[in-house]
Structure formats: C-alpha cells, structure tokens
Amino acid sequence: MGFRNRSYKRAEVITAYCFLFCAIVLALLFIVIPIGRAFTYGFTDYYLLKPDDKAFIGLDNFYRIATDEVFLKSFLNTLQFVVLVVPLQLGMALGLAMIVSKKVIGNAFFRTAYFSPAVLSLVVISILWTVMLNPTSGLINEILTGLGLPAQPFLTSTTQAMPTIVFISAWSGCGYQMMIFLAGLTNIDKSLYEAADIDGAGSFKKFVHITLPGLKPITMFLVITTTIQAFKLIVQPMVMTGGGPDYSTMTMLQYIYEYGYRHRNIGYASAITLVFTIFLIAVSMVIKRLFKEEKA
Amino acid sequence: MKRVKKALFYLLAIALALQFLIPLVWMILSSFKIDDTIYKDLGTIFAVVPHFPDLTLKSYQELLGYYNIFQNLFNSLIYASITVLAGLIINSIAGYSLARFHFPFKNVVMLFIIALMIVPIEAIILPLFLVVHDMGLINTMAGYLLPFFVNVMNIFLFRQNFMSYPGELIEASKVDGLGEFGSFCRIVVPSSVPMYVTVGILTFLASWNDFLWPVMAISNSGLMPIQVALNAIFSDTYNIFTSHMMAALTMVTIPIVLLFVVFQKYIIDGVVRSGIK
Amino acid sequence: MKKILVVLGCIIFILQATGCSSAGSGKNGNNKIVVWTQAAADHPEGKMFASRVERYNEANPDKLQVEIQNITRAGAGSGYIDKLNAAITANDMPDIFTLDGPDVAAYVDAGVIGELDSYMSNGFKEGFTDSIIQQGTVDGKFYAMGYSDSAVAVMYNEDMIKALPADIQAKVPAADEDWTWEQFVALARDIDTYAKSSSDAAFADYKLAVSTLLSDIASGSYETGTYYFTPLLWGNDSNIVAEDGLTVDGVLNGEKSLQALTSYAQLFAGDPLASASEPEKAFHTGKAPLAVAGFWYVNELKDNYPNLKYRTVRYPKMSEGYSGSYTPSGSWTFVKSGKITDEEKSKQVVEVMEWLTNDQAAEEYYAANGAIPSRKNAISVINTNTDNAYYNEAWTVMQYQVEKTNKARPVSVGYPYLSETFAKDVLLKIAQNQAADSETIQKYLDDTVKKLDMEFAKYKK
C-alpha cells in the first residue's frame, strides 16, 4: 500500500462498504466459513446422525486417507480423466473450429450442429448416453454391429467405463471451446497467411507456423479452465455408473459425496475435502505460474 | 484434385455433424414413440428419421401422469431467475464499489476476492452443506439459493468493466442531484447492459444445470429442481420406460433451446468473452 | 443509498420468510400423521398401503388424518434411504416411515426412531413371526413392525432343462430336496457347456446360465447382493460380522467365509456363468435357464409372464453338514419417528402402525402382492392349492424355507455401511474382475475388513 495524497471521504467510505456489504457477508458465510469447517471437522470423528458425540481424533482421518486404497483409486481416476479429457476435448474443439472457419456453403449448419450439445445439461447428457450405451439394447452397439464391429460393454466394463466418460465429456463440452477457438482464429492477422501463400508454404506449414502461435494465449487459457473444471468431475459418473464398476469411475468429488453425504461420516469426508481443496488450489497456482512464465 | 479435397472436406464435416446430431435426433424421435417401436427401429434408418405413422404423444401423456414435471421445471425457472437477479445486483454493486471508490482496506478486500477466486467451490460442497444444515436451511429455498448469489469471478468481471467507465459522467450526473446509487442505476447500469445480459445468461445456465448442490440441499419433491427430478425419474425402473425418459429429457431441453435462440448473440459473446479475458 | 438497502433488505427478508415458512410446514406438522414409504404409488405394495390408510381415515374421522407419501427414489445409489437420511438431518422427519429390517439398529443407535413396547396394544407384538420380532428388536426393545417376510429360492426354466441330455437333467433336485451350492454351480456349468454347443430352439435366446440380479447391485441396490448371498456364508457356519455387530476381523475374512466366497466365485471362473451386467429380466424372458429368485418372482411371473414354465427348488446350502438356519429372510418394516414428543400423538401413531401390520393387513398384502405374511395367524393364507402347478410348487418351497430354514440378517449399528461394502467390495468385485482363486478373494476380504474397521471406529469409542 503506497502513501495516498488524499484522505478518505467519510460518505464515500460508507457508500463503498454498503455496496460491498452483501457480497462480503455472503462470501464469508458460504465460502470462508465452510473452509474453516472443513479444517475443524477434518480432525474429528463427527458422524452427522450423532452430532453431540463428536471428538477430536488428531490425524487419524489423514492416516486413514494415506492407507485408503479407494481414495487413491479415486484420485488416480480423477487424474486419468483430466489427462485424457483436456487434450481430447481441446483437440476436437480446435479441429471443429478449423472446419467452421472455412467460408463454405453450409458453414452455419455445421457450426450449429457442432455447438448443439451445449443445449443439453450434464444430467440430460448422462442419462441419454447411458440409454444409448446399454450393452444389450443400446443405439451405439446397434450401430457398431451394423458396421460389422463387435458390440462393446462400455460403462459396465472396468477398463472401458472411464474412457467412455472421457469421450462423452469431450463430446458435450467441445462446442463451447470451438466457439472460443473460432474467435481466436478470426483474430489472426490475415496478411500473415497471404505472405505465406506468396512464399508458397503448404497448409500444414501455415497451421504450424501461423495458426498455432496465433492461438497460443487462448489455448493456454482453455487448458487452465478445462483442467480445473475436469478435476471437479462428478455428475457423469454419479448418474451413469455410480462410481463403478469396481470404483473404476469413482472420482474425488464423488468420494467426498459418498462418505460425507451418503454415509454421513463428516469427519472423514472433511479430511478428504481438505486434502482435495489444497491440491486443487496448488494445481491452479502452478498452471497459472506456468502461464505467466510463458507470457513473459 | 481440388474437387476431391472439397468432397473429402464435406464428408468429414457432415460425418462430424451427424455424430453430434444423431443422439439429439434419436432422443427427440424416441420420445414420440412407444418402446416397442424404439427397439424395433434401432437397427434401421427410422431410428433417426421420422416415420410419421409411428409417432405418438403417448409417452408424454403417461410421463405427466406419473410425474409433475411442470412443477419441477417451474421450480428450476424460479430458482434460476432469483439467482440471476440477486446475483447481478449483489455482484455488480460490489464490483462497482471496488472500481470507483477509495476506502480503507480496499487492497485487503481485493486480495480477499482474488484469493477466493481460486477456491474450487464444488470441492467445498460438503462443508457448505454443513453450514446450511446448521443454519436449519436444508430443504428450504433460502438454503438452496443463498450460497450461490455471490460469485467472486463475476465481481471481478464487473469491476474490470466499470473501471473503464469515465468518472466524469458520474460526477456530472451527481450535479443533477442524483446520489451514488441513483447515478449507478440511471447512468452506469444502462450503459453496461450487454455485460449484464451476458453474465445473467451464464448465471442462469449454471443455475439451471446445477445438480450436485440440489441433490444435497433439497430432498423434498415439491421443491426439487428439474435436474434432480430427472435423475429420480431415471432411477424409477418400475414405471419409466425408455420412451418416457426421452420425453422427459426433451421437455427439459426445450426451454434451453428457446433461450439459445433468443439470446444467441449474447451467449456466444459471453462464451467468447470468458475465453478471451 | 437508502433504496439499495431497502432492496437488499427485501431480498433477504423474502428469502428468510420463504425459508421459515417452508421449514415451518415441515413433516412434523401436528395436524396430521405423515407416513413415508419406499413403495411407488402405483406399485401393488403402494396401493395396498394407500387403501388401508384410506379405510383408517374413514373409520376415524375425529382423529388426526393419516397422509401417505410415496418417496420417489432420487440421487445416485439407494435413493429412498439417502432421502430419508437427508430428512433426518434436516429435522424434517415423517411420523412413520419404512425401513429395511437389518437397517433398524443403525437408526436406533442414532436415536431417530422410537421404541414401541409401551404404546402397543396387548399381545400385538407376539402376533409377529419370530424372525420379524428378532429383526425388530434392538437391545431388548421392540422398534420395527415388519409388514411382510421374504424368501429366496432357485428357479429353473422347465423348457430349457427338458432340452438337456438326461445325465444333466438328473442333476436337478426335487422341490423337497436339499442341495449344495457346489451341486448348483456344477449344474450351471453343465448347462452352459451344453447350451453353447446346442442348436436346440429352447436355447435360442440363451445369454447366461444363472440370473443373480448382481446388475442391481451395480446400479445401486446394494442390499440385494447381501440379502441374496450372505446365506452362503451362513450355510458354511460363518457370517459377515460377529454377534456384537461390529467385529469383522477374523469373521468376514476368516477361513470359513473365504471358503464360502471362493465357492461363490466359481460362478465367474473361466467362462462366467453369471454376470454383473446381465440383461434385464433375464430369467423371465428365457435368456437364463436358472435364477436365484426372490419370492416376488412368483407374482411377477404369474402376472406378466404367464407362458413361462418355471420350476422352483430350495436355496442351495453351502456346506452339506451344516444343520442351522441359512436361507434369506426379513423385509421392510414400519418404524416410528423418535422425535414425536406428544404422548397422545405417539399413541395414535402406533395405532396406525398396528393397523398397517395386523393379521388382516398381512392377509391383504399377500393377496395383492404375494408378500409373505409377517403374522403367525396369517401364514395359513398362503395358497398352494391353486390350479397353477408352478405357482403351488414355488409357494411350497418358499413356505418350507420361511418355517424351517430362514435366518435374519445380522443386527449391527453399522449395517448400512457393512452391507454396502460387502456387496460392492466383495460380491460385485469378484463378479466384475472374475476373481475365482482364494488368494485374490482373501485379499479382497482383508481389504474390506480394514475398510470396515476404520469406519466402525466411530461406534467403538
């Protein structure tokens, strides 16, 4: 805080705080206090159905996390989801953006078609795909067998369930990012392409040397937001697989839900919340730092 | 050569379009069939092309006999509208305050807001549930809505937006006898309508689509928003067949399609703007 | 400036007001008695409750009126229970609600359901069958009135069995014979081998040998798994938890349990005979020749699949030498909220519960839904002399088991978690990973015991 030349005006200060009042109160109540709660309950054995019976149990919950194989599995599943979905979804989005950026007949139709899953909520998407992916009577297997391919178990297989959820998430989310890439593409200076044409550069060369660098800031931003978003995966597995089969689609957030909400074991779930929240904050700080270095 | 290239381009573009459209078309068409027809058509082209003699409204009639979907749709509409309205007011005046006024601890408040921006709200959903639970507000509209009025990201966006607003215009309006709040309402807000509409629509969509929080905060079927009701219908294997489910999914999607048609420009703008910034 | 405060004040006021009003109109309103049930409104069970409540209200116009609410399942997993838990923590409990028998102890421990002894009319409790009294009693006090009992047997598809060579057919026991799990698996294996090589029309739709409803566990109905297959442990003189309801080490992962579960796992060894993702109604539609079948199959088949020729035999025993009870039993019950403070209301609530579970009610439930009566005086209504031989046979087997071999699931304050973990981490895991060797299964069991011990720490302090 530097020195200020002018002192505060009483009326202005009062107005300023009045304007801020609601936001600050609500943020304290519903963001700051919950974080505080996670801290305190994480060290207790609070069981929601017996609130008067909670006791401080030190680091027990954290020891439990360290030895809990399902926790580890959920963590790795979440990580696997992030690592797969971010490149797939952004790659699809970029590809679609390249297609719709071409000024051809039918352009508007393609753009609408690619963006269309955006009107579906995650719950609708999850239910719709669960029905379509039914191993014995689903549309997708019907199409596969029609094309002469073998039917797949999809969501009922421990090895296919997570990749299936990755695909569905990318399918439903890439339309939004396509729009952002599209805006980025139109912002690239046209004269660069014209110059390259004169030099006789091929389209691949133009893509690598002009398009990609031109999209870099947008790509970085999308990587950050999509990554953070992906870590918070829960609706699709909750609706489609319930975390199964054999915990192969259990994610961090759903694990917290299972213990905290379904089993009412607040102590343990708060400890997991704490670990996961700190992890997420660390991740977003790290990628933001990388982003900044990149910029400089 | 060029012709082949063009043909390949169209082939790819159309194949991709089908990939996105087939599930939607199948969903809508199946909602107008009975289950027997749905499964009979699966392997044929009629899965995705209407065959009018087979289409019927039966699934909608039956679905509405089992579940009062309109009540849930109405609930969601009310929840989303209140969240948008309250959110716009609270976040924009907070953003305005930070953009325009000088007051002690302003830096602290700014830091506080930036710090909260990196807190992943969904991750702290359980302790949030406990706070609302301790306030005795589980299963109430207040408990469900209050936590999501304030959105630090939006405060920040509004602040950025208002920073670029020329202060002289506000001073001038004050000469005309308007107070701070008056000049904010009459001068600043009208000039920032696109910003309000964009943030409002994104808030609306987020509220409409929310699932995890209502699952935890609302268990009373009368108060249930549509997304949770959908999942309840989905797990009712006793009454609900595929055609009913598709009818429910279609009904839930219609309002959003309308929203997109009406506000298309703002939505795209909002999406893009959130990406560029 | 003032305006903004007024606006904000209004918003907060409105929210508070709506908050209060919806909290105030909670289920505990004193002007009526609210009943929650997990049965859907147009399910035969739901209709039965509705009809009895209607008659109660008509007969007692001066008393508090009873309102029944059919709770649709919501959220992932075991929906009704999730919703009930939510209502309990929100202090928004109904006056009477249904609970699965084995879950009663957990809710007693949490102090949310009230004891019934002091309100019940004379001799009413004694009218319940022994297993129903057993399942409703925690620490010597009676809490839960079961409105029906249950049974699980094995069914086979007569057309498909008749298409088998005589030597395989000979392996099918008679309806009044005990048989072992080993014999059952061997039969299934033979059928599977034959069906896959045969072009007989009876096996045209053949998908798998045994329908087990494991797919229900996969989609969140965990209790089905525990209910169906814990008896395999019982039949080997073991259990999933010790008498105290909390000790699992040395019991669930003990030698006898391991033996039983390895034997269970033979269903999934090599070419699997059963699957965690079996087609819906696999037995009903002729896709599976064998089924581990709950009593509700009988009415389902009678009403919706009248052409299916199904035969019924006893639930297989794990160890031939075992002589105790071992077949699945128990069912949903009515319990009373522990939060009712008004004595008068408590009395009427229990009166309503008696009305919903008395001899006459049990007979009606049997007639409407094929539910096994929970009252001693009502058991005789089970009719095994109809003109449908398949139906008679099925009920004869079920009745035998209810009277001779049925065993209640363990009483444990941690039952909901215990049951879910056992179903998911043992039964389902074996099926999904097709793990059939005792080494892997021992590891699953040890892991499960570790997990249960950590969760049960909260009850042991």
From TrEMBL, chain A:
UniProt KW Cytoplasm keyword: no
Top-level taxon of the source organism: Bacteria
InterPro entries reported for this sequence: ABC_transporter_permease, MetI-like, MetI-like_sf
GO cellular component, one term: plasma membrane
The keyword Mitochondrion is assigned to this record: no
CDD domains listed in its UniProt record: TM_PBP2
Keywords carried by this UniProt record: Cell membrane, Membrane, Transmembrane, Transmembrane helix, Transport
Subcellular location, record wording: Cell membrane
Ranges that cross the membrane: 12-35, 79-100, 112-132, 165-186, 207-231, 266-287
PROSITE patterns in alphabetical order: ABC_TM1
ABC transmembrane type-1 domain ranges (all copies): 75-287
Single biological process term from Gene Ontology: transmembrane transport
Name of the featured protein: ABC transporter permease
Taxonomic source organism: Paenibacillus oryzae
From TrEMBL, chain B:
GO biological process, one term: transmembrane transport
PROSITE patterns, per database record: ABC_TM1 (PS50928)
Pfam families xref list: BPD_transp_1
GO CC entries: plasma membrane
Record keyword Membrane present: yes
CDD domains hit by this protein: TM_PBP2 (cd06261)
Keyword field contains Transmembrane helix: yes
Membrane topology: Multi-pass membrane protein
Top-rank taxon: Bacteria
Transmembrane feature ranges: 7-29, 77-96, 108-130, 136-158, 184-205, 246-268
Keywords (A to Z) from UniProt: Cell membrane, Membrane, Transmembrane, Transmembrane helix, Transport
Subcellular location: Cell membrane
ABC transmembrane type-1 domain segment(s): 73-264
InterPro entries xrefs: MetI-like (IPR000515), MetI-like_sf (IPR035906)
Similarity-based family: Belongs to the binding-protein-dependent transport system permease family.
PANTHER family hit by this protein: ABC TRANSPORTER PERMEASE PROTEIN MG189-RELATED, ABC TRANSPORTER PERMEASE PROTEIN MG189-RELATED-RELATED
Name the UniProt record assigns to this protein: ABC transmembrane type-1 domain-containing protein
TrEMBL record, chain C:
Record-given protein name: ABC transporter substrate-binding protein
Lineage top rank: taxon: Bacteria
Cleavable signal peptide: 1-23
InterPro entries given in the database record: Bact_solute-bd_prot1 (IPR050490)
UniProt KW keywords: Signal
